[in-house]
Amino acid sequence: MTRQRPRRRRTALACCLLLLAALAGGGCADRSRETLVVLGPWTGAEGTAFEAMLKRLEDASPSSQLRSSRGGPTGVTYTYKGTRSLRETLVAQLEAGDPPDVAVLNSLGELTEYARDNRLEPLDTPGHPPWAPRVDVNGSSRTYWVPLKVDLKSLVWSKEGGERDRARPRWCVGMASQATSGWPGTDWIEDLLLHRSGPEAYARWATGRLSWRSPEVRGAWTAWAQLLGERSKKSVDLSLTTSYEGTSDPKAARPAPRGLLNSPELDCTHEHQSAFIRYLYANAKGEEGGGKGSGGGVRVDPSARFLPGPAAHDGAYEVAGDMAAVFSGSPAARELVERLSGGEARRLWHEEAEPELRPFFPGAGDPQPTDPGGGKAAALLTGKAETLCFDASDAMPPALRDAFHRAVLRYFRDPSGDRLDTLLGQLDTVRAETGLQGRGTTGHNSLPPEALCAPPTDG
């Protein structure tokens, strides 16, 4: 049973405490409102849209219309704090004993650790694999987080009109992403393993039941190197220092659109990237149509068309998500998380976000992006896909995930067989150190394999 932390209440009663002596008998009206703090990863336009949705959700709350017996407002206020250093901020707040009421994380591995360390409050909601599976804690299987927005990863973006390049793509690679540099490479390895070996092997590997030195895993690494082909040292160095978002040409007469496909230095035709990147390719199109813009037109297709492997696994797609969990003992925080994952919040969020930044939601009945690239991805995510498997590195314990990122960067620089053997051996060592100690073992930080893959659902 999780320990209950004291319910924190941030109030507007400081004036009463300061003026109590001077107000003999006058007093202050009870204007106390509980303020719930939501910590999340969205900044800029994404953060603005989420905050606007949160405010509208607060205004629509029945509790916001209540009045205290002395005439002042009561109820709950929602406050959003967005940061690009989410894990570091959350860890610091937990160590200080002042966690947010709600935090939004994209890592099932981190969430599982927090749940089993009794940091999270259980929720009265059913499991929702692959985004929010039930977790065994102290002998009880409960749900500890819910998906707010989700994403489709198994996609390839390419320049429209480059049909002659489809057989031999020139792959765009930008590996830089501040503290998390390397994740575009781990996405490649994960998608290749899923496509070549199928969901069962993928889930066993992601949860520590399959060795990094197994033929399935090793084969995904070597397949990636073969797809990328021969590269010069200059090309490798450029990819390692180029942001996954790309850069615009500083010599251009007018600012060129960002995105790796638009980066003149890379000179590439195809990019393996999640659906979220569509905000850089607002003119993206799928098979059913779309538009062209200053970038010459960009299309999006399932990655299975470009990856080597048996066609039997073409219906499996890698996905990711941002999940909300309760870190305080406030009943209002649990109520907020349930509201954030409900239909009203999704409708409001869809309305507030710019078209190319509108979130994907897990159910076919939810409002989804309708821009050309987003609409194509949404159709796959909510119906056409046969199996959805959660991002493997985000399902791993943080220490193993971070080691995976570093190993990908080293392998990208030197894809020799000897280097790969060394890297995979090191990753198996980290796997053991994090409690994922072999086939059939359920470590402290591990989810069961069946939690990671599931068919699309309506809700």
TrEMBL record:
Residues in the signal sequence: 1-29
Gene3D superfamilies from the UniProt entry: Periplasmic binding protein-like II
PROSITE patterns: PROKAR_LIPOPROTEIN (PS51257)
Region spans: Disordered: 242-264, 435-459
The keyword Signal is assigned to this record: yes
This protein's UniProt keywords: Signal
Name this protein carries in UniProt: Extracellular solute-binding protein
Organism: Streptomyces lasiicapitis
